[in-house]
Design a protein that fits this description.
Blueprint lengths: L6 H17 L3 H8 L3 E10 L5 E10 L7 E7 L5 H18 L4 E7 L8 H15 L8 E5 L5 H15 L20 H20 L7 E5 L3 H13 L3 E6 L4 E3 L6 H11 L10 E2 L11 E4 L18 E3 L8 H10 L3 E3 L1 H4 L2 H15 L5 H26 L3 H20 L4
Parallel strand pairs: 3-4, 3-5, 6-7, 6-10, 10-11, 11-12
Antiparallel strand pairs: 1-2, 2-4, 7-8, 8-9
Helix pairs in contact: 1-3, 1-13, 3-13, 4-5, 6-7, 6-11, 6-12, 11-12, 12-13
The chain binds nicotinamide-adenine-dinucleotide.
Length: 419
């Protein structure tokens, strides 16, 4: 047992040890690479609209600062704990290193249900969280971004709180903020755009035309909805299944994205859109499709359903959707092209890096330039992962993680152990 113990941290730990075995990291060198540099836990007292004062728990975990500041999203979700946050921070480290970004990984969040908070309460939680984090973050120390349950508005409140404390605007303290206050063109779409771009590359590999392919997307938030739109509108993929935490739908003849989008804009969630297409959410991931995009939460593909998957490409929009047990089953099956999370959803942090660079330089790019540079990095990284997998005879996940872990390990080796 340690501070981080829990199912998500155990999964990140297990994955790391599999990679460490593969690349031959000796046992005594492993903890230094795995365990976070620091974890911060704070209490966030908020005066609620009903007159009560509630205290929420907030966390930030900074995995390593070896290659530059840490970078990572902020999650507002009811069951959040420090172990989950640490796992997500560790995955961010391998992801940033894989994409060649000068960052370590971080993650943070508040255990709260943003859908149950009024706008004023959400603002109070966001501002107080950032206020408590001020001693530990900074544009050269740790740069926050959105994740599940947070959005551009929350980032704007973070930036304002940090800036007011410092007496001047410090745009580069967060990424994923609105363009009007130093955000970058293309950030909101970046993760989903990256997922769709890599799906295209995977389809080329297995020689399937996008315009004749079908997709199922789990999660209809930032990553899921934008992945679905780009797959459908720009690539001609037919979306046959969609789900969120309230409902799941499947229709082999295709789901009408515009109507669903209107429903979600009005009701926030998918629940109540249709009775005909409604299915048991536990069946969504195993329904037939060419492209399966889990874009919601961790550990949804497990040993219990991995053998039932009926897709040809698994594009992991979410972080940690597939457990190591499920990985083993998928690898043995050998009929699914996996785009592992640290590659598949890296479009978000790559464009966050572009945003930080633009803020620091006070020089802003066009959306076209952002997307072109994003695609360049994704293409190079995709090739590197495929080549490494072939060279080592391992899965895409193992190859991607090996590249990421090796980069961090080399940085730590060169810098040495202080003092
Ligand atoms: P979001 O809050 O915008 O949307 C989350 C979606 O997942 C919602 O539709 C929600 O209903 C659904 N969901 C939550 N729990 C679910 C469950 N148990 N079953 C089915 N659906 C469920 O969040 P997001 O920013 O789209 O993030 C989604 C995933 O992508 C997370 O794993 C996140 O870490 C990862 N990610 C996000 C970004 C980003 O830029 N936002 C970048 C990289 C990775």
């Amino acid at each position: 047992m340690n501070l981080y113990s829990g199912p998500v941290f155990e999964m990140a730990r297990e994955q790391f040890h599999l990679v460490a075995d593969h690349i031959g990291i000796e046992e005594k060198a492993r903890d230094r690479l795995l365990y976070p540099k620091r974890a911060i836990a704070v209490s966030i007292p908020v005066n609620m609209d009903d007159g009560q004062t509630r205290v929420f728990q907030g966390y930030r975990v900074q995995h390593h600062l070896t290659l530059g500041p840490t970078k990572g999203g902020t999650r507002f979700s009811p069951d959040l704990d420090v172990g989950e946050v640490a796992a997500l921070a560790i995955w961010m480290s391998w992801k940033c290193a894989l994409a060649g970004l000068p960052y370590g990984g971080a993650k943070g969040g508040v255990a709260c249900d943003p859908q149950e908070l009024s706008s004023r309460e959400l603002e109070a939680v966001s501002r107080r969280y950032m206020q408590e984090m001020i001693p530990f973050v900074g544009p050269n120390t740790d740069v926050m971004a959105p994740d599940m349950g947070t959005n551009e508005q929350v980032m704007a409140w973070f930036m304002d709180t940090y800036s007011m404390y410092n007496g001047h605007a410090i745009n580069e303290i967060v990424t994923g903020k609105p363009v009007a206050i130093g955000g970058t063109a293309g950030r909101r779409e970046a993760t989903g755009r990256g997922v769709a771009h890599l799906v295209n590359r995977a389809l080329e590999q297995i020689q399937v035309r996008a315009s004749s392919a079908t997709a199922i997307v789990q999660g209809f938030g930032n990553v899921g909805s934008i992945s679905a739109y780009i797959l459908a509108r720009e690539m001609g993929v037919k979306i046959v299944g969609l789900g969120d935490h309230t409902a799941a739908y499947y229709d082999a003849s295709g789901l009408p994205l515009e109507a669903i989008e209107r429903h979600v804009r009005q009701h926030r969630n998918l629940a109540g859109w249709s009775k005909q297409a409604l299915i048991d959410p536990s069946e969504l991931l195993s329904r037939k499709c060419d492209i399966l995009v889990p874009a919601a939460t961790e550990q949804v593909i497990t040993a219990a359903n991995a053998s039932k998957l009926s897709c040809r490409v698994l594009a992991e929009g979410a972080n940690g959707p597939t457990t190591p047990d499920a990985d083993a089953i998928i690898e043995q099956r050998g009929d699914i092209f996996v785009i592992p999370d640290i590659l598949c959803n890296s479009g978000g942090v790559i464009v966050s890096y572009f945003e930080w660079v633009q803020d620091v330089q006070r020089l802003f790019w066009t959306e076209r330039k952002v997307n072109a540079r994003l695609n360049d990095i994704l293409d190079v990284t995709f090739e590197r992962v495929l080549n490494r997998a072939k060279q080592d005879g391992v899965s895409h996940r193992m190859a991607a993680m090996a590249i990421g872990v090796e980069k961090v390990r080399e940085g730590k080796r060169l810098r040495g152990l202080f003092p």
